[in-house]
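Appendix B, Record 12. Input sequence as logged:
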Amino acid sequence: MFLPRFALTFAGFSYFAVSAVFAQGTVTLNNVSYPFTSIEAGNTVQVQITGAAPNGQVTVVQNGGAPYVFGTTDASGNWQVTAMEAPANVGDYHQVWYVNGVAVTPWTAPPYLGWAPTLPDFSVGTQQTPASPGVWGDLVNTCGHDNSSTPVWGWNPVAYVSSTTYGVSAVNAAAQYWNNAETTLTLSGSTYVQDIDVFDGTLPADEFGETESWGNGCSPCYNQYDECNGACLNSSTIYYENITLNDSAINGTASYKGWASSSEATYTLVHEFGHSLQLDDVDLNTGQCSEVGSVMTSIPELCGIFGPTSRDIATFNSVYPSSPGYCSIGGDYCDGISCS
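Logged structural output:
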């Protein structure tokens, strides 16, 4: 971190031994450049102490070294320092902060902000190479039919209906991100029929949304022709999908970010619609924004990515090299003629 540079600049220091049983105040390590993401060289960071002893001496011990006096809290017991992480600061750190010799309690990140830097242990990383999403191809198989290839939608447009408390405008905005990025398949809102059902529900604390996809092996039209466009509705076509939004994670992280919950729901749905179009998750190794180049990561909006990127569209194009045949929303589904 930036502390070793400061420590080398100052020859002297004073330090109060720990003299109290209980910690006081809270200390937070913030990535100012990209809040709630991991720190990398070039990011501006800030250490902030709140609610500690007024006019108290601020001291830090880094990596088990000598204590270093960094300043004094104000009359309200608050203090902060901001600096940019240089490439020379790449590495792992252990920091314990004190006010008047009493350890300050580190802020604990909630599970839905899992990449937020926290004390006492954190890292400063090097720039990463962003990855592209793979093909998802994950179906809920309750009908015993195996899939020989990536399942795709057999008709266009794909209709969605929503009962989420975030409002239909939040869902429409997410769909529009995809409709603006590609023209092969259209996501279209509907009030009376759906291919995709969007609703609120309960998920693990660190999951913002979940997409479940069923293949046509589960439909009464399995291995029959779609009467509107002649597509064979076999196990390689999608029947319908459910998208669940996790209220507690969406509302909680929106509060921390200072965003409207409906906006956070939209960003979550952009990711989940990516699954509905058969894009896979991109797992992060570091949580640094230089690693994030796709809406299929867990933190794209924190890194300024709100819609599909060229990497996302390249994968989408590999799944849909051409548009499925047109079928009007609510039209008849199958004609009873067998296909394979």
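The longest strand covers residues 91-99.
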